[in-house]
């Protein structure tokens, strides 16, 4: 692939989007434009792999240099994302045949897929098309996930910015509740993402530092919820500091293994209500301690908060996109660029590379020694790991008080094939 | 008061805190230090008026110039706030006698109270102590409230920064849901503050502009919730744009006059659950349209978010504190400095002044012509009013990726009196 006539490339975004996935897109597109002898057009899939299957390809050559550059400071997925996992070749050969048909029709020789663990699996399957179905393609995965649960890479682009948002918000809300505690709210509860791993919840612990101590109780999905111990800890904090902040992962579970959020809430008409875990924890505090509380649920706000993105994270997201193209140009297939930590203090990192079959479908959990013995906090080791990831600010440009996020033209490439039913 | 030996001053923060109430404190303290011939020490009440009643006074002369300066970029109430309303003189003369006792003991001749409508009432009562109980004092109210519901002043310090946070967050989350909508979430619901007035919800409308159109449905407390019309509007947006964002005020009410949030939720054990309105709206959408949704509750995050404060708001908060001291030095009593709008485009404003008896206990609602006829959006007139208030960014300093918010020493002045039971 690296020699001869240039081949076109396919790029797509997959799974939950982040504040910096477009920075990776920016890295891919800007770098691809530097190798015109090897890479022709970059077609972006509209809504991830679905764009490839339905031949809904966006011709990124129609976008201006300025628009592509602005992707670096624009949150969300500029080409649309999807939650769609390719089945195995045995289960659905029709989809693979279709991919090859579309790739052939548009002379696509490079496949860049920007996503998390599930998407790495899709990318791995595509990378095997040369072997399995005799179609030559180089598939490179670009890591992305707020959950920080990909293996091998030190951390995942997307996570650092969520971590910064949660750390900053936790500090700010804690200052607020501390001001109110004398006659009003004494406990603030913030619900954060992370259904399986507690990385994002752990970031709440960064709100408290040596020069700004804050009593924070973290509820990790890795630690079974112990109601009595939790209430005793909150109570002790309120007695000592006058207030307490609770950061609770959406994935925290009761001893019976069920999500704490799943308390079978019903409204006045008996309809089931899908609540968050924050109000559940609030009720537990109200009932157990009788303290006045407030609760918040960050939800999409946390992963879309480009306005307070981590500079480390933006830089790494861009670097992963850039590295993916450089690996492709070097003839690599079935790999994923990674972040390799060189040192924590001062923070230094470089780009590494991992084989995709070691990445796909592997989930990296929080190490046990990142959580304090009482199960409610982060250790010094965890702090050393996390702190570099939220370093630096990378503010978007503003106009009339609002961040200027780009919307691409997203011009569709002309279809050459018949319709395909998903 | 303006002549002769300098008198000491009392300053306190009251009610819900904001991202910029400390900027007003900064304005008061820095300005007071410029008039040593007229103002001696500034004592801050620990936890608002309670600090005055219990003689828990903070000696702000013990704080460094740098610490006072840092208040300008620090959210929350540095001296602690309170929710405590003085009763009328007839109902509780004991409290007024105590205030005079404390003021006399500490030679206090100026009273600066930083709060909203209820606090203006407290300040008004104190301003009348000269007449009612023969104690000479000048009481000046410093406006503060995220609810933006004080009369006469064009807007209230605290509101602009919440408005900016909500506008920015709504834009970011809308970009997110737009990316996910093809195969996943189609509606995002954001719950915001504002139990009586829809000012904060209105700010969600600023997320959509001519160059960045976003389908947003706003549920105002001023507009009775019409379920069928709401569902039809969300449905039409999803059909047209692929997704829809809903910004819902915590104070939105059903046609029967009850809060929509108060749906009598019960958990599996039959305990009442205090939920937010966002999950209620989510359930209505799920049941009525069967669409996948996400919801967030900003809660304290919105009013504590100093990291994305509006520069207009910070400047005005500081100016109100400064003006309060200048009014005091000029011998004024029972007044409140105000923001007077000179023009919207370009935005120009100046400091005005209002008599306290026209401010206390008056609530400014959204004008009817600020809400579109369908009840779900903001008019051009509303936009012209709101846009200047979110103008400009005023970032705090960062260290290791975290905003550096100051914590004062808050050294207590020596008590001279006996205990007082609240």
Question: If you had to describe this structure to a student in words, what would you say it looks like?
Answer:
The structure is a homodimer of 422-residue chains. Chain A is of the alpha/beta class and 422 residues long. Chain A folds into two domains: 7-145 and 306-362 and 395-403, Rossmann fold (3-Layer(aba) Sandwich), CATH 3.40.50; 159-304, Rossmann fold. Chain A has 13 helices and 13 strands. Chain A has helices spanning 21-32, 49-53, 65-70, 93-105, 117-127, 129-133, 159-180, 199-204, 227-241, 277-289, 300-304, 311-329, 380-386, and strands at residues 7-13, 39-45, 57-59, 108-115, 138-143, 187-192, 216-219, 244-249, 293-297, 335-343, 348-355, 398-399, 402-403. In chain A, the strands form four sheets. Chain A has a five-stranded mixed beta sheet, with helices on both faces. A four-stranded parallel beta sheet of chain A has the order 7-8-6-9, with helices on both faces. In chain A, strand 12 and strand 13 (402-403) form a beta hairpin. The two termini of chain A are 30 Å apart. At the A-B interface, helix 7, helix 10, strand 9, helix 11 and strand 13 of A face helix 7, helix 10, strand 9, helix 11 and strand 13 of B.
């Amino acid at each position: 692939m690296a020699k001869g006539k240039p081949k076109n490339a396919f790029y797509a975004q997959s799974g939950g989007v982040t504040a910096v996935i477009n920075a990776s897109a920016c890295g891919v597109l800007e770098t691809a434009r530097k190798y015109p002898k090897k890479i022709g057009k970059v077609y972006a899939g509209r809504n991830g792999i679905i764009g490839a299957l339905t031949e809904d390809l966006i011709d990124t050559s129609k976008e201006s240099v300025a628009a592509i550059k602005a992707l670096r400071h624009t949150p969300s997925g500029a080409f649309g994302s999807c939650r769609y996992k390719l089945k195995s070749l045995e289960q659905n050969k029709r989809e693979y045949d279709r991919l090859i048909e579309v790739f052939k029709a548009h002379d696509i020789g490079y496949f860049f897929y920007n996503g998390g663990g599930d998407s790495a699996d899709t990318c791995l399957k595509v990378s095997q098309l040369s072997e399995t179905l005799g179609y030559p393609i180089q598939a490179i995965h670009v890591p992305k996930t707020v959950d920080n649960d990909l293996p091998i890479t030190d951390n995942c682009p997307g996570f650092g910015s969520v971590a910064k948002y949660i750390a900053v918000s936790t500090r700010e809300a804690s200052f607020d509740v501390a001001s109110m505690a004398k006659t009003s709210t004494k406990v603030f509860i913030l619900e954060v993402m992370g259904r399986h791993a507690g990385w994002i919840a752990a970031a709440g612990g960064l709100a408290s530092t040596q020069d700004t101590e804050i009593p924070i109780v973290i509820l990790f999905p890795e630690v079974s919820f112990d109601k009595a111990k939790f209430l005793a800890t909150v109570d002790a904090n309120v007695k000592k500091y006058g207030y307490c902040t609770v950061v609770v992962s959406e994935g925290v579970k009761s001893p019976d293994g069920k999500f704490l959020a799943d308390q079978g809430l019903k409204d006045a008409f008996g309809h089931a209500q899908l609540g968050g875990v924050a109000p559940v924890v609030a009720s537990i505090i109200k009932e157990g301690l009788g303290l006045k509380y407030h609760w918040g649920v960050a939800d999409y706000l946390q992963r879309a908060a480009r306005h307070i993105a981590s500079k480390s994270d933006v830089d790494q997201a861009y670097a992963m996109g850039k590295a993916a193209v450089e690996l492709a140009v070097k003839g690599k297939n079935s790999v994923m660029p990674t972040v390799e930590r060189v040192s924590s203090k001062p923070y230094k990192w470089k780009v590494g590379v991992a084989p995709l079959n070691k990445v796909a479908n592997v989930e990296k959990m929080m190490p046990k020694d990142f959580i304090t013995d009482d199960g409610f906090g982060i250790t010094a080791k965890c702090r050393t790991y996390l702190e570099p990831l939220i370093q630096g600010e990378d503010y978007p440009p503003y106009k009339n008080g609002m961040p200027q996020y780009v919307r691409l033209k997203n011009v569709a490439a002309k279809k050459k094939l018949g319709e395909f039913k998903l």
